[in-house]
Design brief:
6-stranded parallel sheet; alpha/beta; 245 residues; single chain; globular
Length: 245
């Protein structure tokens, strides 16, 4: 079973081209929406980084078998953390354009979202769907994906984003999130869009070197390379899964 985990400000729509490129049957994968991202937040859900990890672990436990995890952006961070906490539920993992890295200090927008008042002011611009769509495209999101995703960025998602980034201090990771990477299953893969404006390629290179896992760099692709280059990503995943058996 393959479990796809999207990031911010996305929904499972992110994975449509990849699922098609992999020619997966409906019973071969799941691509759930993060709470607050196109679906309502359950009662009592705090929308912090740890609550999203607990949510993913719960999804993994429901499947009751070792899973091939694939995550992008915040989905990648959550996948890595969940895999460290429950390696017994993981067959393999692959992350795209985000990794847990103690030296990374977060991109400008992440730091803004993590800052009270400034984050709320930044979110005001995201209330205009047309303007948001243009902003996503300028940040590297494929236009077809931006047209689908922008309307999903409602008040509930905006509030979830602020809570998530503030819980992570604007993508500054420390403590158990970093130290427990030693428990990460060794059967991993990193996929990276070379021109990502949010997380530099050097971050991916450092992570792959320290963890001893393969890194595929997709030349000329950006932060959403997993969608933009779905057929190339599918080939990387097939090779990855064949290596780990």
């Amino acid at each position: 079973m393959i479990l796809f985990v999207h990031g911010v400000p996305d929904t499972p729509e992110l994975w449509r081209p990849l699922i098609a490129a992999l020619d997966l049957s409906a019973d071969a994968y799941q691509a759930p929406a993060l709470p607050g991202f196109g679906v309502h937040i359950p009662h009592g859900f705090s929308a912090t980084k740890d609550s999203y990890v607990s949510w993913l672990v719960g999804e993994m436990e429901k499947l009751g078998e070792p899973i091939d995890l694939v995550g992008h952006d915040w989905g990648a961070l959550i996948v890595l953390r969940a895999a460290c906490l429950r390696p017994d539920l993981v067959s393999s993992w692959c992350v795209a354009n985000a990794v847990i890295d103690a030296q990374y200090r977060g991109h400008r927008t992440a730091r803004a979202w993590a800052t009270p008042v400034l984050g709320e002011l930044t979110m005001l611009a995201m209330r205009n769907t047309a303007r948001l769509e243009q902003g996503l495209v300028s940040g590297g999101m494929p236009p077809a994906l931006a047209k689908v995703e922008a309307p999903h960025v409602d008040k509930e998602m905006r509030q979830s984003i602020l809570k998530l980034y503030r819980s992570a201090k604007g993508l500054r990771f420390e403590g158990d999130w970093v130290e427990n990477l030693r428990k990460l299953p060794t059967r991993g893969q990193v996929f990276w869009g070379e021109t990502d404006p949010f997380v530099e390629l050097t971050v991916a290179e450092r992570f792959a070197r320290e963890r001893g896992v393969p890194l595929h760099v997709e030349k000329g692709a950006g932060h959403w390379a997993c969608n933009e280059r779905a057929y190339q990503f599918a080939a990387v995943l097939r090779a990855h899964w064949s290596r780990v058996g």
